[in-house]
Amino acid sequence: MSQIAHYTTNTHDIELEIQRKGVVLGIDWSNEAQVRALAREAINYSPDSIKFTAGKPVDYQQLAKVDLFGLAAIMLRTMEESAAVGLESHGGEAWKVFARALWAEKALAGH
User: Fold this and answer.
1) Residue 22, CA distances (Å) to 29, 30, 60, 77 in order
2) How far is residue 62 from each of residues 4, 55, 92, 111, measured CA to CA in Å?
């Protein structure tokens, strides 16, 4: 598989999952304040901050958030890796809005 096809497939799959998690979380991708708050939380996320307890009801929103934060890391890495080989990769609108917010929050946090 060529690098272009690889990045195209990856970005499409990541975008689809970002959209799905956004639905579960009720994210309005056009609400900049809401997306920036989510990005800030993603940048500051630590796996130790979330606990799931056996026997308790499953918190599907919390699971979606954990998945979304993992997708954010994959998304940023995909963009960085593709840029390193001279390719610009990105998904659709949700990807672009979330990526801009993540880069802005990452810069503010000094990461």
Assistant:
1) 8, 12, 12, 20
2) 34, 16, 24, 24
- Answer yes or no: is pLDDT of 91 > 60: yes
Residue 84 has pLDDT above 90, yes or no: no
Tell me the residue length of the chain. Answer: 111
Tokens of 105: 């929050």
Rg, the chain, Cα only: 15
Residue type, 26: G
* Mean pLDDT value across residues 3-14: 75
Amino acid at 104: A
* Residue in the block written with tokens 């996320």: 45
Q: What is the dihedral of CA 40, 93, 59, 48, to 10 degrees?
A: -30
Q: What is the token pair recorded at 47? A: 């796996």
d(CA 3, CA 86): 10
Q: 30 and 96 in contact (C-beta within 8 Å)?
A: no
For tokens 């920036």, name the residue.
36
The model's pTM: 0.78
